[in-house]
Amino acid sequence: LAVVSVEFDWSVDAEDKHDEVVREVNALRARLPDGVRDIEIRKANPSLVNIVQVALIDRGAGPLALKRAAADLEESIEGIDGIRRAESWAYPAPEVRVAVDLARLAALGLELGTVIEAIEGEGAIVPGGAVDVDTRRYNLKGTGDFGSVEEVGETVVATRGNAIVRVRDVAEVGWSTAEDRYLGRYNGEPAAFVTANMKQGSDIFAVQRAIDARVAAFEARLPEGLALETGFVQALIVRDRLGRLAADFLLA
Fold first, then answer.
1. What single DSSP character describes residue 181?
2. Backbone phi and psi for residue 230, each to the nearest 5 degrees, phi listed first
3. Given a cut of 50, is residue 143 above it in pLDDT?
4. Which of 34, 65, 164, 196 sits at 20 to 30 Å (Cα–Cα) from 156?
């Protein structure tokens, strides 16, 4: 696979130039050398470029609070007129982890599968997690209606005479995070990111002012243990470039 990038000067009509490139490439297709199967043309869409990136930094709040804050800020920004799409990403996914005590389980004459079936049978509104046994892990898929971590611990596993055996009797249950596929960092600190791109034809300066207002209001009510930093603002780059163009025009 070979990739060739084509960039147009800002002063030309990009649509006309794109059509010209397509015509020239199509004219070459009949003369492709042996081994070259096809040429695929992909057109970049400027509206897909993010115009802002905000970092939410975890300073003790934990992954669940970080995820909730990122999702809330994403929803707030996406509601702004002129925003095409907002996204939140890079936060560690929170999950419920159940660490089973095998000795306790054996003493009660129970098997690991009984614990797993009991939890999966009740399901989960809380994020699905895993059962840890020594160095092995069993992923859980819930189908029911847990409302909290405590309810997971209260799940009935079996009965022994008049006694009820619950998950908390044979395991430690608590919040944890899924295995990290990648890590989000801002200036070396754990962070999640919220980005947004703009609808074509919108005024980037008006959209950015609206984003700034939403971000400022959101920052004012951040929970303890979270901090907010704005890492990238495309409107500032556009403003500086327009300023340089204006200065060059005046000098000319």
1. S
2. -95, 115
3. no
4. 65
110 neighbors 165 (Cβ within 8 angstroms): yes
CB-CB contact of 228 with 77 (8 Å): no
| Beta-strand pair 163-166/171-177 | unpaired
The answer to whether residues 216 and 77 touch, using CB atoms and an 8 Å cutoff, is: no
Average pLDDT over residues 189-197: 94
In sequence order, what DSSP letters do the residues of 137-160 get, joined into one string?
A: EEE----S---SHHHHHT-EEEEE
- Is 139 a residue whose pLDDT tops 60? no
Structure confidence by residue, pLDDT tens digits, 55-112: 999 999 988 889 889 999 999 999 999 999 999 988 766 667 788 888 888 888 888 8
**What CA–CA distances, in Å, run from 165 to 31, 110, 133, 161?**
75, 10, 18, 10
**Do 43 and 22 meet the contact criterion of CB atoms below 8 Å apart?**
no
pLDDT above 50: residue 234: yes
Quick one: the chain helix, strand, coil %, rounded to 5?
40, 25, 35
CA gap 142, 175 in Å, rounded: 16
Nearest CA-CA partner of 140 in 176, 182, 101: 176
| pLDDT of 103 | 86
Could you tell me which of 140, 202, 195 has the C-alpha nearest to residue 173? 140
CA distance 152 to 17: 61
Highest mean pLDDT among 140-144, 180-184, 235-239: 235-239
CA 100, CA 102: separation in Å to the nearest integer? 6
